[in-house]
Structures are given as structure tokens and as C-alpha cells.
Amino acid sequence: MQVEMLKPVMDTETGESLPGMAELIRTELCPRVVSIDLKGEYPREFMHKLGAIGGFGAMVAPQFGGTGYGLKNAIRIIEDVSRECVSTGFMVWAQYACAWYLQNSSNLAIRRDVLPLIAKGIVLGGTGQSNAMKSCAAIEDNRLTAKRVDGGYLVNGTLPWVSNIGIDHYFHVGIDVENEPGLLIALVKGDHPGLTLNQNAHFIAMEGTNTFACNFKGVFISNESVVSHPSEFTQFKSRTKAAFILMQMGMGLGLIDACVSMMKRSNKTHGHVNCFLDDQAETIESELLAAREACYRLADKIDAMPDANHERETLALRLAGGEMSLKAANSAMLHLGAKGYLVGNAAQRRVREAYFIAIVTPAIKHLRKELHDIDTGSCACTA
């Protein structure tokens, strides 16, 4: 599969991740964080405005509407948003995950017609790959099945939770095809005939993520809507998996940074007692800096060598990010004490967000399983 290589050109070591990024977050996101968290407000306008300044284009080649700045820039953007709100940072990751699969598709029509809309934030989108990733790791069965028919595939099944979607949103899914090895990766829209979206579940956090159950009942997927056919899956997976997962580090890095700031502020008045807590701001900040450096370095390596195998290093770093998020949020909560326990206080929100980072696919237990399987040679993708 021949796709355009990204050529990062932006200096992402200093300054803003994008021009205008800090101002957009300050004016459009910060005032809405509590409503996003407690009322489930979906930050649609922020997402569209972020796309307009290039916030979803880093993983997309310029000829398809992107900036082509590369993986590190994408992670920095997700980190900047997550420093204020992990729920919205997750939406940014989902938009990037949608774009990244389309960027790597052999389907030129999708890259030409749909990818620019996603890369510029004109249309919003997500990824329904959680179940597919877990099925590949032999954690659960694939919930979507298909059989070939004239002109495409007929799909049935239900995905319980897909985020950053709606009637006017795109998302891609991984599907088992009858009598064929490998997964079908298909692009659908929320109003696709035969597809029903239901919003029945309520979560302790991330309520503003437009998360729906997706029921496919005799859904026809034409060949024109195929991102990757089953015969292409092995190559497609090897090219996309590392970046797909590493981008999630932006959520953890942003959250940990915010927790360190809370701890430092608390120490101005309560340092004399906070010093008895196990995890201090300086220690967590040091770990954050090391993790950020490792993450950016790996991102540059993935960009420079997109066909190399970066899987183990990516999984290990993502695991560390989840574990560090829990540690940082727990310590921030203990530093703030009773104030952190108030409704609307950022500390208790960060605890809930940290648990999300730890359980969103790939979850901590999933990551440990895949690392075990790699190290022991006991399992490969079962698709």
C-alpha cells in the first residue's frame, strides 16, 4: 500500500504546538470544562475551531488538507488540550485516529474526498476500533461480522461504545469477514442506512464525548467505503498501530502536568504537611519530563521509519503513561485534601480522568497482556 510520507517541518520543541493554540484553549475550552465534565456538554465549536487552525492536520499530508507536521506535533496538541480537559483531549485523539487510518488507506477516493474534511475539522469523526483491537489480542470476540456481497460487504453486530460520533460524524470500524483472514476496516457515517446510534450509558467522567452504542443491522458497506480490505490488514496494522496508540500519551502527559501544577499550588499554603505524602510534586515532575522526552523521541522515530516495528516500545511507554496518570492524580487529590473533594474541583475530576486513561483501549491490563505475548512469543493477532 503506497501512501504519502509525512515530512515534519515545524519546530515543536519550543513555543506553542500551533499558532493561536493557547488563546483558543483559554477562550473556548477553559470556560466550558466544568460543563463538559458535569453536564456532558459536547465541545463542538471548540473542535471545529481547533480544526480551522490546523489542530487535526499533523498526521495528514498537505495534499489531503493536513499540515504534515508529524506525530510529535499531534501528541503536543492532544497534550495541550488534555492539560485543561482530558475529555476534550480524548475527542482530539479520536479525530486524529480517524484521520490517521484514512491517511493510510489504499482508497484514493476516501483520502481525496473525506480526509480533508476530517483534517480541517469541517466534519468531526471518531474510531470504533476498541473491540477490534481487543479481538486481535485474543481478549474478546469481534462484535461485528460481515460477508462479501456484490459490490462490497454486508455487516451485522453491535459496538457498545464509540466516541466522538453522531449523525453527521464519520468513524471507522474493524470487522471480521466470513471465511477471510484479516479484518475489514470500513468508514461509515452516523446516518448510514441500517446503522442505529443509541446513547444509553452514563459514565462517571467523559460524558461530553458523544459516546454511542452502534447497532449494525444488514448494513451494506460498498467497496468505495472500505479503508482497508482483509487482504491488506497485516500491512495496514503494522503501519498504523504504533502511532494510533502513542498519540494517547498526549492525554496522560497533559493530565500529569496539570496535577503537578495543582500540587505545587497546594504546597504554597500546605507544604509543611504535604511533605509527608508519598509522591511529591518534584518527583512526579521529573518522571513527567522523562516520559515526555521518551514519547517525543519515539514519535520522531516512528515518523522517520514508518515501516519499522515500534510496537513493543510504544506499548511499554503507553503503559507507563497510564500508570503515571493514576499516580499523579492520586497524589494531587491527597495534596488538595477536602478542597479536592468538592464538586467542580479539578482534583476529583483528574482522578476520574486518570482512571479513564488507565482503562481506555488499550487498557493497562491489555497493554501488559500484549507485552507478555510479545516477550514470550505466545500470541499474535488472531484476525
TrEMBL record:
One of its GO terms (molecular function) is acyl-CoA dehydrogenase activity. Residues 22-121 form the Acyl-CoA dehydrogenase/oxidase N-terminal domain. Pfam families: Acyl-CoA_dh_1, Acyl-CoA_dh_N. Its cofactor is FAD. Keywords: FAD, Flavoprotein. It comes from Sulfuriferula nivalis. Coiled coil: none annotated. Belongs to the acyl-CoA dehydrogenase family. InterPro entries: Acyl-CoA_Oxase/DH_mid-dom_sf (IPR046373), AcylCo_DH-like_C (IPR036250), AcylCo_DH/oxidase_C (IPR009075), AcylCoA_DH/ox_N (IPR013786), AcylCoA_DH/ox_N_sf (IPR037069), AcylCoA_DH/oxidase_NM_dom_sf (IPR009100). Residues 282-359 form the Acyl-CoA dehydrogenase/oxidase C-terminal domain. This is Acyl-CoA dehydrogenase. SUPFAM superfamilies: Acyl-CoA dehydrogenase C-terminal domain-like, Acyl-CoA dehydrogenase NM domain-like.
